[in-house]
Automatic annotation (TrEMBL), chains A, B:
Keywords from the named record: Hydrolase
Span of domain Nudix hydrolase: 10-157
Molecular function as annotated in GO: hydrolase activity
The protein's name: NUDIX hydrolase
PROSITE patterns associated with the record: NUDIX (PS51462), NUDIX_BOX (PS00893)
CDD domains: NUDIX_NadM_like
InterPro entries the UniProt entry points to: NUDIX_hydrolase-like_dom_sf (IPR015797), NUDIX_hydrolase_CS (IPR020084), NUDIX_hydrolase_dom (IPR000086), WH-like_DNA-bd_sf (IPR036388), WH_DNA-bd_sf (IPR036390), WHD_NrtR (IPR054105)
Annotated source species: Streptomyces tirandamycinicus
Length: 255, 255
DNA sequence: GCAAAAGTGTTTTTGCTACACCCATGC
DNA sequence: GCATGGGTGTAGCAAAAACACTTTTGC
């Protein structure tokens, strides 16, 4: 049977981004205000159409750069002249409910990006508003208690996508060195611990945490420098080591 | 800016299936012989186009039923009148390299299915050949040593998709009860252990394994029956319990 | 009896928790 | 001095590894 272009229906393919960071000890996600219908005025995840000759990962990296100025940073071979701050980027999942976009059939390949704390989100090419919002508010775990300005749910199925992305990040920092993607290039053990505490929403024992991360070979590499930016006794500075898998994993306390 | 259909390029969207089972103590994947160009005559993963009004998961379930006769089995609310053997189905990842299909731009949403040992694959609607092949051969870990009839690599990027699916299965049985999806409705602890050994390719201590799985609350439920189908002393029969998460996880030995 | 697989008991070792305690800075 | 966060030592406990041993079938 020869190739027949009428044998399959055409789809629009987009990428949506769950961009997470830790700001003021809270896990935050990047959201943009929609300027057009549908869901005009509602907050949504950043994203856009995949171009005709563009790989999915490339489309996600392009959208990430457009929205945040971040360049994707391959943690194994950091490009020497790359942007000041790198980010982790990975595919999350694909959402293709026939009714998820009222205009047409859109399949969205969601990606998860983890970034260090950034100065402030810059407006996208469309001059959309953009901001960091605590995921606790966006996911409505405690929204009722505050009477917030969140304009309710995110657009489309983005609340579900965000929840899936947050869950991925929460579980993946257990057994990988991914939490270092939330930190600046050099960081202290205490700063890394506060990342875990913000992402998991729990308190960890500083002493045991220190022993665990410094005792795992290849996880952290001391740079030799120290800092007192957190106050108290000077703390050693570290870079992320080559090890990407944590074995045994970091244990997330029961909630 | 109003909606402009010319603003985005059209894509074809397909689902591809990594269907795994354990046969004769080996992890096997379902492959079909391609009857048309490109890659005519090569083995490939089963799959097909997503229909215009079909959810991605529904498309994967339809393809799975067409190729194997398996119905997807929701392990939490098994349909009373459903097919004799159920299967686990979940989304794996999405593959969208612009050059992955020479004919046109195709984005494939790969799914992972786990099934108990089946009699024999039946031919698909297109009367294609279908067979179970050990993943060790398909992934070429030891292909050279045998001079096999595998006709080399799988079509398209299916070798990569298969590798990703196998890796997902290997890691997910560590911390979930997914391994029971490879077993018949009633099974012994020894049969479950042989599933782990086949998927991981390692030998496990039968005594410690027994203690571990029977000691995890909610994982296994004794049915009261026994069997000697494996020889030796009669073994208790179990069904999969309600627990889907294993905590603490099953530990995969170092290789 | 013998082989084979199921199942239990016991010791060793590993790694996490909890908490006492000391260190080095800013103020 | 005192507060703050950084870092080490150690006892107790939970669970995994390793392995001896008994049980119940088929032949």
């Amino acid at each position: 049977m020869p190739y027949d272009p009428s044998a399959f229906p055409p789809f629009a393919v987009t990428v949506d981004l769950v961009v997470l960071t830790v700001r003021r000890d809270a896990l935050c996600a990047l959201v943009v205000r929609r300027g057009e219908q549908p869901y005009q005025g509602r907050w949504a995840l950043p994203g856009g159409f995949v171009r005709a000759d563009e790989d999915l990962t490339a489309a996600a990296a392009r959208e990430l750069a457009e929205e945040t100025g971040l360049c994707v940073h391959d943690r194994h071979s950091p490009a020497p002249g790359s942007s000041p701050t790198g980010a982790h980027l990975e595919q999350l999942a694909t959402y293709g409910d026939p009714k998820r976009d009222p205009r047409m059939r859109v399949v969205s390949v969601a990606h998860l990006a983890l970034a260090p704390d950034l100065p402030a989100p810059r407006a996208g090419g469309d001059a959309n508003q953009a901001r960091w919002a605590p995921v606790g508010l966006l996911l409505g775990k405690e929204a009722d208690a505050h009477g917030e300005d969140q304009s309710g749910q995110l657009a489309f199925d983005h609340t579900q996508i965000l929840a899936d992305g947050v869950e991925r990040a929460r579980s993946k920092i257990e057994y990988s060195s991914l939490a270092t993607a939330f930190c600046p290039p050099e960081f202290t053990v205490g700063e890394l611990r506060r990342v875990y505490e913000a992402v998991w929403g729990v308190a960890l024992d500083p002493r045991n945490f220190h022993r665990k991360v410094t005792g795992t070979p290849g996880f952290l590499v001391p740079t030799g420098g120290t800092t007192t930016r957190q106050g108290g006794r000077p703390a050693q500075l570290f870079r992320a080591g080559g090890a990407t898998l944590l074995n045994p994993p970091m244990l997330r306390p029961e909630v």
